[in-house]
TrEMBL record:
The keyword Oxidoreductase applies. InterPro entries: FAD/NAD-bd_sf, FAD/NAD-binding_dom, SQRD. It comes from Lentzea sokolovensis. Transmembrane segments: none annotated. The lineage of its organism: Bacteria, Bacillati, Actinomycetota, Actinomycetes, Pseudonocardiales. It is an enzyme of class 1 (oxidoreductase). It holds the Pfam family Pyr_redox_2. This is FAD/NAD(P)-binding oxidoreductase.
């Protein structure tokens, strides 16, 4: 009998999983992707919009058109999942029964969670570049900004692409230099972490770059309130950071449909899964990919891409009654744009933090080091995203397992 695979979310993970599964399983499975609109946003491009380096329209393509022939697309919101009955209830009243369910509903921005963030000043002197509307409005505000204190603040973790706020700082430094007003701008990065980044080795390198570029670093700042009128961030322990313009990365939570599904999500609305097989801890026939997963990786498109290979294999094995492949190693790979046409690259997994060296082998892109080659890699990634990653193709020389070759292990 034809097996039914339902995929919730047609973003990065849902799309590449559907296309990989279609190729692996052919017509022996009926694959349906559900999402609530037809706008697939290339989210890494949002970083460039505020600086006029990308236009919002160039980042959006039809979701439906990214799916291979033979994959069905259902344009509706997901209301909730009945995990006992193996059914998905949709906003349009429809019900989809499944043999295997893949949760790919990503992470949701929840700015309302922080007192005052969406109050007075929101979208006039307090912005987020984490969605299209925010990134576009911020581009206008930056153009009009002639000097003062610009603060970039991460309210809490986890967030998507944890390096993106740092990249924003580096690009802001470049942008104001280009405009000849850098001396009139005080740039400050405010984070709840005790360092510039989660991983100690990379954190030292990134903190050094902030210092070189004259960007202040404020650590262990847990934002409790944003006072847009007075222009200040206030922490739970009553410290204050003043601003003329604030760029805030809001609290992230899991999808509301996960929260509404009894027994599916954790306290934040993410779905617990085995970190090596990606099978959910809720039910054997539910798998998770991308930002929706509560596993100890970064919430990044690269992780989602690497997960795709193991997830596809495991859905096929599950349907065949075979043992699952427990090989996902938490592989994460991020270009960090540093301004002036340069970028760094970091590559790590559950057990190995970002190290210097080269990727993917002794000959390749420099790791943890600014270079033009990495900047070109970051720009080329957009093309690879639409033409290779989403269609579910493997990238030449790039494997899901993190390579050790090329890394200077003695630097640990
Ligand atoms: C500013 C920014 C910069 C980034 N830069 C990078 C980078 O340089 N490199 C990198 O690797 N990653 C980067 N990322 C992260 C990357 O974009 C995400 O990790 C990736 O898109 C995760 O894929 P996903 O499928 O889990 O979620 P998404 O691609 O967000 O897809 C989730 C989908 O679920 C749908 N959905 C949710 N709830 C429902 C519902 N109730 N009903 C129907 N549909 C629903 C949504 O509409 C959405 O389409 C960046 C992200 C941001 C915001």
């Amino acid at each position: 009998m034809t097996k039914r695979i339902v995929i919730l979310g047609g973003g990065t993970g849902g799309t590449l999983a559907a296309n990989r599964l279609r190729r692996a399983l052919g017509a022996e499975c009926e694959i349906t992707v559900v999402d609530r609109d037809d706008d697939h946003v290339y989210q890494p491009g949002l970083l460039f919009v505020p600086f006029g380096l990308a236009h919002a329209d160039d980042l959006v393509r039809s979701r439906r058109r990214q799916l291979h022939d033979g994959v069905a697309y259902r344009d509706s919101g997901v209301l909730h999942v009945d995990v006992e009955a193996d059914q998905v209830h949709l906003d349009d009243g429809g019900v989809l029964a499944y043999d295997v369910l893949i949760i790919a509903t990503g992470a949701r921005l929840v700015p309302e969670e922080t007192d005052g963030l969406t109050g007075p000043g929101w979208m006039s002197k307090v912005f987020s570049f984490y969605d299209l509307a925010g990134a576009t409005a911020l581009a206008r505000a930056l153009r009009d900004f002639d000097g003062g204190r610009l603060v970039v603040n991460v309210v809490d973790l986890p967030i998507k692409c944890p390096v993106a706020p740092l990249e924003f700082c580096f690009l802001a430094d470049w942008y104001f230099q280009e405009r000849g007003i850098r001396d009139h701008v005080r740039l400050t990065y405010v984070t709840p972490l005790d360092a510039a980044f989660t991983k100690p080795f990379a954190a030292r390198a990134l903190a050094g770059m902030l210092q070189e570029k004259g960007i202040e670093l404020v650590t262990e700042f847990n934002t409790g309130e944003v006072d847009g009128e007075a222009g200040k961030l206030i922490s739970y322990d009553e410290r204050e950071v003043e601003f003329d313009l604030a760029v805030v990365v809001p609290v992230h939570g899991g999808a509301e449909c996960v929260e509404r599904s009894q027994g599916l999500g954790d306290a934040l609305g993410f779905v617990s899964a085995d970190e090596h097989t990606l099978q959910s801890k809720v039910r054997e026939n539910i798998f998770v990919i991308g930002d929706a997963a509560a596993i100890p990786t970064s919430k990044a498109g690269s992780v989602t891409h690497f997960e795709g290979e193991v997830l596809t294999r495991n859905v096929a094995r599950f349907l065949a009654g075979e043992e699952l492949d427990a090989s996902f190693d938490g592989h994460t790979n991020c270009f960090i744009e540093s301004g002036f046409g340069k970028a760094l690259l970091i590559d790590f997994n559950y057990g190995t933090e970002p190290l210097p060296g080269h990727y993917p082998s002794a000959v390749g892109l420099p790791l943890l080091k600014e270079s033009r080659l990495n900047h070109l890699g970051k720009l080329m990634f957009a093309w690879l995203y639409w033409h290779s990653l989403l269609p579910g193709r493997d990238l030449p020389g790039v494997s899901a397992a993190m390579p050790l070759a090329g890394k200077r292990l003695e630097a640990r």
